Amino acid sequence: MLLGTSRGILDLWDLRFLLRLKAWGLPPYNSIKRLSIHPTRGHGKWVCVAGGTSHGEITVWDIDKLQCREVYRTNSTQDTLRNYDAYRIDDDTPEGPLGRFAVDPDHKLDSGSATSTEWSVNSIAVGKDNVRPDGSVDLKSNGGFILSVGADRKVRFWDLGKAEASMVVSGLDVEENKPTFSSSQISPSLIITTERRSTTGSQNQKEVSKKRATGRPSRQAFISLQQEKLLKNHLDAVLDVALIESPFAMVVSVDRAGCINIFA
């Protein structure tokens, strides 16, 4: 059994003998929200972790070697190359974990509120895309995906086989362009997939503003578009996400205001 704590620590237990096998921390030790076994790689030993590390990141850890294998960064995450080494709790002194949090006044548990620079991934759901167009199942397919939701009110689809196919399912504003996704091999054992805001977004916004000022677009059409976006998007932090596969694939997300959205 693998469990995550509110202090960003993962504990691996052997339920046969009731022994804790190992424990490691994920700097900067934010609250761990959700754990899921990687759907396509690792043979059950790779685990997807929402939380623990920097806000807006999903990390994949090899629990056998205690190595970070994959990182999925959202648009709000600072694009910096930092260390993803696990902090081995068993190698620390008994008072080490307690002293680290006691002397760090800036460290606090996630409150669930979003700011412009940092927010938390509240939940993830994983799946394997092995269904052919005719409805049969391809047992040799290795395509998988991760669905993530967070305090930025967005629902994201991460394609584990092709980073460019990832997308934001819900949460984009009317004048916000679709972001792009790309992956890079940082080291032989680490791949980072990053969401980037489109560089043409500001130019398109200027063009739209210019057309409004000169061409007198339909005010009713613009209001209708805004209302449509409000109906499709969450208006508060998204707390959980689930995948329904029957009678057909559907994504279900729920926010803090009690709104449940279903995407087919």
**Approximately how much beta-strand content do the residues carry?**
35-45%
> What's the tally of helices?
3
Strand order of the largest sheet: 4-5-6-7-14-13
Extract low-pLDDT stretches.
Answer: 107-113, 131-137
The coarse overall form would be: elongated
Helical residues, percent: 10-25%
The number of domains is 1
User: Which class best fits the helix and strand makeup?
Assistant: mainly beta
Distance between the termini: 33 Å
Most strands sheet: 6 strands, mixed
- Give average pLDDT, whole number: 81
What's the number of extended β-strand segments?
17
Give your account of this protein's structure.
The chain is mainly beta and 264 residues long. It contains 3 helices and 17 strands. It has a 6-stranded mixed sheet with strand order 4-5-6-7-14-13, with no helix packed on it. It has a 4-stranded antiparallel sheet with strand order 1-2-3-8, with no helix packed on it.
What's the topology here?
Layout: E1 2-4, E2 9-14, E3 19-25, E4 32-37, E5 46-51, E6 57-62, E7 67-73, E8 87-88, H1 96-102, E9 121-128, E10 144-150, E11 155-159, E12 167-170, E13 180-187, E14 190-196, H2 201-215, H3 219-232, E15 238-244, E16 250-255, E17 260-263
Parallel strand pairs: 7-14
Antiparallel strand pairs: 1-2, 2-3, 3-8, 4-5, 5-6, 6-7, 9-10, 10-11, 11-12, 13-14, 15-16, 16-17
